[in-house]
Amino acid sequence: MSTFLARVDITLKPTVNDPQGLTIRGALHSLGFKEVQSVRAGKYMEIRVEAATPEEAEARVTEMCRKLLANPVIEDYRFEIEEAK
Amino acid sequence: MAPLRFAVVVFPGTWSDHDCQYSLAAVAGQDARLVWHRETDLSAYDCVVLPGGFSYGDYLRTGAIARFSPVMEAVVRHAEAGKPVIGICNGFQVLCEAHLLPGALLRNESLQYRCQWVHLRVENTATPFTNLCEPGQVLRIPISHGEGRYFADAQTLDALEAQGRVAFRYCAPDGTVTPAANPNGSERNIAGIVNEIGNVLGMMPHPERACEPLMGGEDGLLLWRSAVEWAQVRA
After folding, report:
1. Which residues contact B29 (CB under 8 A, 6 or more apart)?
2. Please, what sign has the CA dihedral across residues B90, A77, B185, B101?
3. What are the strands, taking DSSP E only, across chain B?
4. Using a CB-CB distance cutoff of 8 angstroms, which residues of chain A are in contact with residue B152?
5. For a surface tag, which of A18, B11, B39, B61 has the fewest beta carbons within 10 Å of its beta carbon?
6. Strand order in the sheet with B190-194
7. How far is residue B49's CA from residue B84's CA, in Å, rounded to a whole number?
8. Domains parsed from chain A with CATH numbers
9. How is residue B102 annotated by DSSP?
10. Angle formed at CA B206 by CA B202 and CA A15, multiple of 5 degrees
């Protein structure tokens, strides 16, 4: 068995209004970052998992995302997996 | 008729459990018990209440972790048997996460926690909790939430409307549905919905906090009285 590190990003679907992102954009504008066109806020998680292969780790993390970590009504998820040191 | 048996489910972080129990028992004269979330059998109860609060600290998403509590399998069985279930505030969020109701509750558009009285137009009077209301009746009931913006995709919203499953809408005191009366940015001013067969109701406002003149209003009592009426008609 090896240990893998999954870096999971959870973001609101494009169709979901994100008032938090809009507020952050407003703050950036008022700080002079006029070039900011849009901000979408999300969640980031690091998950260490034990698995025999990267494929197995990927399958398990996918299941975690589907079952608990993301709500498919409002959110999308994506992740990268690497073998942990 | 014997008092109805209400199970008021308590998750770690629930805060409106005692208010629900008080309004059901002391005010409405029913039998209301607090039921810890580890309970797996609700067959002794007529009606299940998922009260408001911050179950599991609202971590991850509101209601996302409570939805996997042992009691939820019993809540699903209760709902599938056609018995009444009401989720209030955090309870509504749990019902959505558990897929007993469609959609999700998101951060208020204002990003502010809103604790205030609102007016609700009753859109469906055929549910176990609204059958004593008049169609279009305006109820005055408080809200208290930071994440109450009802969201579902357009197709789901159209289906809810077509099937008459919007139970309550935020409105002005005269019953008109306006953007100004919407306290959280909910799609189509939706404050409460029911499932397909109508026995599961989720709503953001707190009827248990409007059950006595001392609380500033008693319109919420209509929901508990409706539940009693609904059971009596079927007894």
Report:
1. B3
2. negative
3. 5-10, 31-36, 47-50, 85-88, 104-106, 114-122, 138-145, 149-151, 166-171, 190-194, 200-203
4. 73
5. B39
6. B31-36, B5-10, B47-50, B85-88, B200-203, B190-194, B166-171, B114-122, B138-145
7. 9
8. 2-83 (3.30.1280.10)
9. S
10. 50
CA dist B144 and B157 (Å) reads 24
ipTM of the complex: 0.87
Q: Within an 8 Å CB–CB cutoff, is residue B117 touching chain A?
A: no
Tokens matching residue B205? 């406002």
On whether the CB atoms of residues B226 and B128 are closer than 8 A, the answer is yes
| Confidence at B235, pLDDT banded by 50, 70, 90 | confident
According to DSSP, the residues that pair with B117 across neighbouring strands are B142
- For an interface test with B, give the residue of A23, A40, A74 to mutate (most B CBs within 10 A): A74
Distance (Å, whole) CA B152 – CA B21:
31
C-alpha span between A80 and A77 (Å, rounded)? 11
pLDDT in tens, A27-71: 999 999 999 999 999 999 999 999 999 999 999 999 999 999 999
Query: Does B148 reach chain A within 8 Å, measured CB to CB?
Result: no
pTM here is 0.94
User: Residue B116 contacts by C-beta under 8 Å, 6 or more apart in sequence?
Assistant: B142, B143, B183
Question: Which residue among B68, B111, B153 places its CB closest to the CB of A23?
Answer: B111
